[in-house]
Structure of DUF998 domain-containing protein:
Amino acid sequence: MMIDAAADKQSDDDPSHPRLFYFCGVVGIAGCIAVVLANIVGVLVQPKDGLIEDTISDLAAGRYAVIMDIGLYAFAIGILAASSGLRRLHWGNWSWTLGSWLLALMAVMIVVIGAYGEYGDNDVGGLVIHLPLVLAMAVTFTATALLTAAGFYRYRPRWFWFNIACAVIWVVGAAIFWFSPTTIDGLIERLVGGVMVVWLLAVSKLLIDRSKGKATRLPVFGAADKS
């Protein structure tokens, strides 16, 4: 039992695969920066589109749609990188594994949304898949935050509550967006999307810290007694 406890502690203290964690963290942060910049630049080059009234979909379907598409692709790559980092970190059981894989699925859905380019904007032809994918993405992010929350608890309890808060704010914000007037739905959508950006930034920073050996989980309570 002493050996098992020592091995567990060594596993937690060892910043396994530091280069991978650092790479995933940097890519995740870059993805967050890219999607925010794409929103700002997209509005600047399309004066008719604003941050308050017009949604991200409006930017992604306009004349300069490529700007928002690039931002979405970069964000998806950042999410995929975070997913890879979390799977390698593996601070949990099956729920952690499932949550990290769902994160990868969300990245795929974002890419499909940007690549397919059909937003239900009355274009002739084309299967409108935007709304179903957005709803699926909302459920997926909520599930990811909740499924990984318990694993984060052993790192820092506040990380558990951070995940819970992100999930709750995301769900409440999505409900408000659904029933909001079109005059402010762009602002609400960006605030809700900001929850995901903040979450990814935090996770990416954690992966970078892990690569430097700073972010290690707390030992299991009572492990010394059991040994």
